[in-house]
Amino acid sequence: MTFETGNSEAALLTPEEMGRADKLTIESGVPGIVLMERAGQAVARAVGERVATGDKVLFLCGPGNNGGDGFIAARCLAAAGYAVRIFVLKDPAELKGDALEAFERLGPVASNQCGKAIEGDDIADDFISSLGSSDLVIDALFGAGLDRPLAGTVLKLVELVNQSGVPVLAVDLPSGVSGASGLILGGAIKSCATVTFFRAKPGHLLLPGRELCGETKVADIGILAQTLEEISPDTFRNSPELWLGSWPRPETSAHKYSRGHAVVFGGPMSSTGAARLSAGAALRAGAGLVTLASPPDAMMVNACHLTAVMLRKVSDTGSITGFLTDERLNALLIGPGFGVGATTRTVVEALLAANRAIVLDADALTSFSEDPDALFGMIRSSPGPVLLTPHEGEFSKLFPDIAGDKLQRARLAAERSGAILVLKGPDSVIAAPDGRAAINRNAPPWLATAGSGDVLAGIAVGLLAQGVPGFEAGCQAVWLHGEAGLESGPGLTAEDLAPALKSVIRGVVDKSSVGHR
Ligand SMILES: NC(=O)C1=CN([C@@H]2O[C@H](COP(=O)(O)OP(=O)(O)OC[C@H]3O[C@@H](n4cnc5c(N)ncnc54)[C@H](O)[C@@H]3O)[C@@H](O)[C@H]2O)[C@@H](O)CC1
Ligand SMILES: [K+]
């Protein structure tokens, strides 16, 4: 993969990749303790933004370098006049390497303000009494080095901190949250803020970890962006930096045919709304033309509701195939309100055989629950990009044996199906068969409403019609959908989303034209 500036900005690093970034930087001549100083100072600055000089800041420092960051921050804050109290998880004599050096740099602070959080198998009384009177706790127990579930007294310690009600600022990650997956290992600190370094980690964006991070800040500790060329990460934050280069920009001479013609295949008279929502969103996403292909009984109701979206009667698979001889129809969507069953499977087969860019959503996915491999076989023979947009329920029917965290599951499913997988939810993951994956975080909870998924599928097909490659179309659609949800606000209904896209798209266009003038 070529690593462009945008990819670099949006890259997420697993703890293992972050370890390599640290190592490469250290090998290039920057000592580890220098990186730790910068990390600790960034934490100290974040603390300074939250509490005032003289306030009581309690540090909980683990046995590794996460604890080392804590010692540095504690020294800086003690020097700045904060009332610092430091608790090392167990015995400071067991510290090694940079963490030991950071501890020694505490100087007199170590002997005056330092204690052990755990004595034998019990939580130290001194820790319990200090916790109650603290203004802020710094969680520097475990970060990238978390390698097993929290258990025993350590878990009790974490629960005590969570129950105390004292706000927590986490160093790198809330202890107990896996940076790779966002899963909680045994138990985890709940923080109101997290300071991480160089690049965010998947665990900062994926649930449930994201909820425990609070506001996450990424601090620059002097690791160069070029380091990423060697690491070549394939997980990204879904943000315009990732896909602005693929944003469809119509030429000055554009006409509606040059902006693509999307076709949405709608359902029978009793369920026409879903496909209309999709078609309206496809048009708003920028497709030059959108046709709603409708069964005869639904023509009248669709005609009553549509204006800019065109309508075409299709009565059976034969008439669909005939319609698709028009090669200008370059992106297709089937699923919303279409109906589940054998007819749907036949139509999907015909659409995949037509070699167009395709979005398969809702009923088009459920129709293959009994035989998903048949669908994957057809997808693999279709050269155009294919997007699958399942929610968790649809996903588990198509991929019943795929387990793991959300990122792993989306990746495995993309690899197996040969499609771009958009695994929807509050932390949607978009994964490509080549291994790339993006994690989305801008979706507000009020997007969980009837018809919202139909709009998302419509945006995606509208982008595909404009020639956006499959992975980028999935990422752009999910991001635009989230922004439209934010723009519409609480109380939205799916009908609000397409109109809200207008100002969202204006924002992206303004961004994308910077540097293109
Ligand atoms: N030079 C570097 O590598 C840098 C590292 N940095 C910091 O270093 C951290 C990573 O340091 P480490 O690799 O030392 O790892 P950590 O400090 O995150 O944790 C490793 C230690 O925790 C123990 N541990 C792991 N899981 C445990 C569990 N469930 N219960 C009890 N003990 C457990 C391990 O046995 C090991 O002793 C980062 O999160 C970041 O805060 C930063 O200082 C930047 C520079
Ligand atoms: K931590």
TrEMBL record:
<feature type="binding site">
    <location>
        <position position="66"/>
    </location>
    <ligand>
        <name>K(+)</name>
    </ligand>
</feature>
<keyword id="KW-0479">Metal-binding</keyword>
<dbReference type="Pfam" id="PF01256">
    <property type="entry name" value="Carb_kinase"/>
</dbReference>
<dbReference type="GO" id="GO:0005524">
    <property type="term" value="F:ATP binding"/>
</dbReference>
<feature type="binding site">
    <location>
        <begin position="424"/>
        <end position="428"/>
    </location>
    <ligand>
        <name>AMP</name>
    </ligand>
</feature>
<feature type="binding site">
    <location>
        <position position="139"/>
    </location>
    <ligand>
        <name>K(+)</name>
    </ligand>
</feature>
<dbReference type="GO" id="GO:0052856">
    <property type="term" value="F:NAD(P)HX epimerase activity"/>
</dbReference>
<dbReference type="Pfam" id="PF03853">
    <property type="entry name" value="YjeF_N"/>
</dbReference>
<keyword id="KW-0630">Potassium</keyword>
<feature type="binding site">
    <location>
        <position position="337"/>
    </location>
    <ligand>
        <name>(6S)-NADPHX</name>
    </ligand>
</feature>
<comment type="function">
    <text>Bifunctional enzyme that catalyzes the epimerization of the S- and R-forms of NAD(P)HX and the dehydration of the S-form of NAD(P)HX at the expense of ADP, which is converted to AMP. This allows the repair of both epimers of NAD(P)HX, a damaged form of NAD(P)H that is a result of enzymatic or heat-dependent hydration.</text>
</comment>
<keyword id="KW-0520">NAD</keyword>
<comment type="similarity">
    <text>Belongs to the NnrD/CARKD family.</text>
</comment>
<feature type="domain" description="YjeF C-terminal">
    <location>
        <begin position="239"/>
        <end position="508"/>
    </location>
</feature>
<dbReference type="InterPro" id="IPR036652">
    <property type="entry name" value="YjeF_N_dom_sf"/>
</dbReference>
<dbReference type="GO" id="GO:0046872">
    <property type="term" value="F:metal ion binding"/>
</dbReference>
<feature type="binding site">
    <location>
        <position position="172"/>
    </location>
    <ligand>
        <name>(6S)-NADPHX</name>
    </ligand>
</feature>
<keyword id="KW-0511">Multifunctional enzyme</keyword>
<comment type="function">
    <text>Catalyzes the dehydration of the S-form of NAD(P)HX at the expense of ADP, which is converted to AMP. Together with NAD(P)HX epimerase, which catalyzes the epimerization of the S- and R-forms, the enzyme allows the repair of both epimers of NAD(P)HX, a damaged form of NAD(P)H that is a result of enzymatic or heat-dependent hydration.</text>
</comment>
<feature type="binding site">
    <location>
        <position position="454"/>
    </location>
    <ligand>
        <name>(6S)-NADPHX</name>
    </ligand>
</feature>
<feature type="binding site">
    <location>
        <position position="274"/>
    </location>
    <ligand>
        <name>(6S)-NADPHX</name>
    </ligand>
</feature>
<feature type="binding site">
    <location>
        <position position="391"/>
    </location>
    <ligand>
        <name>(6S)-NADPHX</name>
    </ligand>
</feature>
<dbReference type="GO" id="GO:0046496">
    <property type="term" value="P:nicotinamide nucleotide metabolic process"/>
</dbReference>
<protein>
    <recommendedName>
        <fullName>Bifunctional NAD(P)H-hydrate repair enzyme</fullName>
        <ecNumber>4.2.1.136</ecNumber>
        <ecNumber>5.1.99.6</ecNumber>
    </recommendedName>
</protein>
<comment type="subunit">
    <text>Homotetramer.</text>
</comment>
<feature type="binding site">
    <location>
        <position position="175"/>
    </location>
    <ligand>
        <name>K(+)</name>
    </ligand>
</feature>
<dbReference type="GO" id="GO:0052855">
    <property type="term" value="F:ADP-dependent NAD(P)H-hydrate dehydratase activity"/>
</dbReference>
<keyword id="KW-0547">Nucleotide-binding</keyword>
<feature type="binding site">
    <location>
        <begin position="65"/>
        <end position="69"/>
    </location>
    <ligand>
        <name>(6S)-NADPHX</name>
    </ligand>
</feature>
<dbReference type="InterPro" id="IPR000631">
    <property type="entry name" value="CARKD"/>
</dbReference>
<keyword id="KW-0521">NADP</keyword>
<feature type="binding site">
    <location>
        <begin position="143"/>
        <end position="149"/>
    </location>
    <ligand>
        <name>(6S)-NADPHX</name>
    </ligand>
</feature>
<keyword id="KW-0456">Lyase</keyword>
<feature type="domain" description="YjeF N-terminal">
    <location>
        <begin position="18"/>
        <end position="229"/>
    </location>
</feature>
<comment type="similarity">
    <text>In the N-terminal section; belongs to the NnrE/AIBP family.</text>
</comment>
<dbReference type="InterPro" id="IPR030677">
    <property type="entry name" value="Nnr"/>
</dbReference>
<dbReference type="InterPro" id="IPR029056">
    <property type="entry name" value="Ribokinase-like"/>
</dbReference>
<keyword id="KW-0067">ATP-binding</keyword>
<dbReference type="InterPro" id="IPR004443">
    <property type="entry name" value="YjeF_N_dom"/>
</dbReference>
<dbReference type="GO" id="GO:0110051">
    <property type="term" value="P:metabolite repair"/>
</dbReference>
<feature type="binding site">
    <location>
        <position position="453"/>
    </location>
    <ligand>
        <name>AMP</name>
    </ligand>
</feature>
<keyword id="KW-0413">Isomerase</keyword>
